From TrEMBL:
It comes from the Eukaryota. The keyword Nucleus applies. Pfam families: HPF1. It comes from Danaus plexippus plexippus. One of its GO terms (biological process) is DNA damage response. InterPro entries: HPF1. GO terms for molecular function: histone binding; poly-ADP-D-ribose binding. It is found in: Chromosome; Nucleus. This is Uncharacterized protein.
Amino acid sequence: MFKSLKEAKSQEQKDKILSELQPVITFASIAMDECDFGTGLEAGVALFCSGIKELENSALRNLEVAYTLLNREEFSKIVQVHMKHRRKGPDMSILSESK
């Protein structure tokens, strides 16, 4: 699904794939409500590692909740800051943003 979403040419195609992916995200959230925090963490990591802009909010939400429920608030803070300054490519310096 991630590959299809990355390769989607139109917003209509993206919306179709996102609607197919939404139940998986919802089920991960339900699993966390049922004390299966690992499912939410795994889903959040998968969404995060996809690097797809449209999935960033879902990734962040899953990771924040999972880390909080696992008493790992520090990791939640790290992922929040990372998402604010996320970059791709070889130039990873935060100093290059000010150019």
